[in-house]
Each structure stands twice: as C-alpha cells, then as structure tokens.
Design brief:
Structural class: alpha/beta
Strand content: 15-25%
Order of helices and strands: EEEEEHHHHHEHEHEHEHEHEHHEEEHE
CATH architecture of the largest domain: Alpha-Beta Barrel
Bound molecules: magnesium ion
CATH class of the largest domain: Alpha Beta
Number of domains: 2
Number of helices: 13
Mean pLDDT: 96
Low-confidence stretches: none
Number of strands: 15
Shape: globular
Radius of gyration: 20 Å
Length: 371
Amino acid sequence: MAKIHNVKVGFFALPPATRLVDARHGDHDVIELITVALTDETGATGIGYTFTGGHNGAAIHKGIEADIVPLLAGEDADQIAAIWDKIWWACHYGGRGGPMVLALSAVDIALWDLKAKRAGLPLWRLLGGYSTSVRCYAGGIDLHLEGDALLATVDAAIATGQTAYKMKVGRDNLAEDVARLTAVRRHVGDDFTLMIDANMKYRASEAITAARAFQPALPLWFEEPVVPEDIDGLARVAQEGGLAVATGENFRSLWEFAETIKRTPISYPQPDVTNCGGVSAFMKIAALADAFHLPIASHGAHDITVHLMAACPNASYLEAHGFGLDRYISHPLIIKDGFAQAPEIPGIGFTFDEEGLSAFCVSAQEHDLRS
Ligand SMILES: [Mg+2]
C-alpha cells in the first residue's frame, strides 16, 4: 500500500532541434511535452510523459489536471490495473481514442516508474526481463531531404552506433521517393537494415503501387501506408504490395491492435507507449502480437520503450525517435553496434532536466492529494 500524495503536471512547448518533415503532418514547428510526476506516501517519485507533434497538448494537459488528478486521490499506487480501469471508464465517453488516452498513458508510465523504483528494479526487469539489449533503428523525419543532405543524415545516425535507419516516403511524386530510397540503399549497402514510413499518405491502391516501386530497395517494412481507420485497405496493401507492413503509432488502444491483427496480415504491430494507454497497454499489445507469432516494433519515447522491448521475447526493432527529447533527460539512450542498452537504474532510469525545460514551460502545477 502506497497512497499517492502529490502530483506534478508540466506542459512544455519545445522547438525541434532540426527541421522535421513527414508526409501527413508537414513541418513540425513545436514538440509538445506533457510530464507527470507522482509522489507516494513513502516519498518515492515516479515520472511519465506523453508528447505530440504540435497540437492537442493543451487538451491532454487539461485532461490530466481536471479529470485524472482528482481520480488519483486516495488510490494505492501499486494497484496500477485498478487505477488504469478507473481512469479509462471515467473518461471513456469523451476521451476514448483521443487526448485522454495520451493523458492516461503519461500517468500509467509514472505509476510503473514508481512501482519499479519501490521494487529497486529497472522497469524491464520488473516486467519480466528478457534481454539486456534490443535491436534499434534511427527514425529519420527527413521527407524534405534528398541527395547529399539525406545521405549525411543517415551517416550521422550511423555515427551514433545505429546499423538500421528508417526514412520517410510520401512525396507527391513517387519517382522522387524511389530515387531517394535507391540512393540511400546504394549508400549503406545491402547488409544495412532500411525501413520506410509514409505517415498515412496514401490511399490503398496508391500504397500498393508505391510498395511495388519500393520493393527493389528491400526495405524491411513499409510503415503506415494508409490511415488507421482503413483496415481493409491495410489488408490489401499487405497482401498485394509485396512488402511487410508496420503500423500502430496512431492506434489508441489494445483493441485496435486486436482488430487489425485479426483482419490483416500485418507484420509489425507498432504501439507507442505514450499514446496506446501506457506501459500497461503496451505490454498487452506485445503479448497479443506474440500470441499471433508476430514480432513487436515500437514508436517514439525510446527512453521508456527500451525497457518494454527488453522485457518482450518477441521484440524486433526499437525506434530511436527523431523528436530529440534526449536533450532534456538525464540518461539518454545508449546504443552500441545497433543495439540499445537496457538501463540498470531502478525505474525508467532517467529524470527530466527541469532547468533546461523551464525555458519552454507553458504550465507547471502541483497538487497535494493528502486529505
Ligand atoms: Mg511512423
């Protein structure tokens, strides 16, 4: 029993470190970061976060402040499943599938960090523990790049220890994407792992044409060829395009993954712990994939997700995400020879650089829940 005594909620609007462009969202001018810190009656603190590409941050922040913080009063921080259910159903009517799931995710992550700290274990060991490292790739957000600039970005990722890279596709002219992908494949050689990501750019028939055009460059997977609502279209792309398909960063629940796995030959379910319902939901999605003999991939938040992937027997590749939040955390991801190292620090193993973040603070509130 460890009652939650204090909640701190932060909302930050961060400038990207470099220009970030993808096919659906265009330029990312602002990265929104919403942080949660939960302190229990023993004085231990767990932290979590969620993020957006520039919109809905205010709704997520307000959702935590107005709806979730009151629901945490009097709760035992160790009963994460009960708290998750309480928040899910309290916020279900207006929040299912939307910003409230991101809000819930941040709180759930903080609860798991707190639980692991109280146990004196790194989160991946608390979750079962499978491997001390996981295969990793650099997630490029590089649709605006081509020629030497694109190759230099790939080289910069390789210089950090990466042996796999994901590039964006989805320009209006398919031939430009084919040329960009072909140039990168020629540059890195056949032994290097390449993925491609269309960020929901295409309709299914366009995606099938694109997949067939990309096929000679041997990408490991074709990510988000279509919108998450088009499950039948996704099935067609996976069946007719000739490439393995990854998707899931825009799914918002375990049940969307279940429906997609049932109805399509998807190859890489790809949840994001900060928007699928947190650690609790991510681990269920990973187990669901395992039950269908599928590997699990990941999107975003690599500093947390490295723990989850290191606890999964069916882990494929961890995405080292390109939003650059590493600048504001104490222990950024360590990558050696293409493998991300699972931290041995209790909990999720990092804290936020509060001084560095303070310059970009939109709101910071603290709530005392002791009655
Ligand atoms: Mg993606």
